[in-house]
């Protein structure tokens, strides 16, 4: 299954990686960037994979994938991918990553903004 990131999610990733580099250096930047690649591949294999969470309590059809699942280690990451399965820009079915947020952030307003922007 194809995985696409919204413009806002792409900006979230850029911001996270910039902050990672600024705070922890280039070695950690490479590790964290690899987690995003792994997470994308895992969601492409199975959007409802074990460990991902149904967050329809926030908005219908929303799921959460914590980056620590991509690392295979608790505490290895602090960010979550909020996504839904739907129709991609090329009219195929796939995973749409709406936002990438720190685990302590309140997701609802950020997800609402992503959905408004389509």
From TrEMBL:
It comes from Magnetospirillum gryphiswaldense (strain DSM 6361 / JCM 21280 / NBRC 15271 / MSR-1). Keywords: Toxin-antitoxin system. This is Plasmid stabilisation system protein. It comes from the Bacteria. Pfam families: ParE_toxin.
């Amino acid at each position: 299954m194809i995985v696409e990131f919204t413009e806002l999610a792409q900006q979230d990733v850029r911001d996270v990686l910039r902050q990672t580099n600024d705070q922890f250096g280039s070695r950690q930047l490479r590790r964290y960037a690899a987690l995003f690649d792994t997470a994308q591949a895992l969601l492409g294999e199975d959007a409802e994979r074990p460990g991902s969470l149904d967050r329809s309590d926030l908005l219908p059809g929303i799921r959460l994938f914590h980056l620590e699942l991509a690392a295979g280690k608790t505490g290895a990451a602090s960010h979550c991918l909020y996504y839904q399965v739907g129709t991609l820009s090329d009219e195929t079915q796939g995973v749409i990553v709406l936002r990438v947020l720190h685990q302590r952030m309140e997701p609802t307003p950020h997800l609402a903004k992503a959905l408004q922007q389509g």
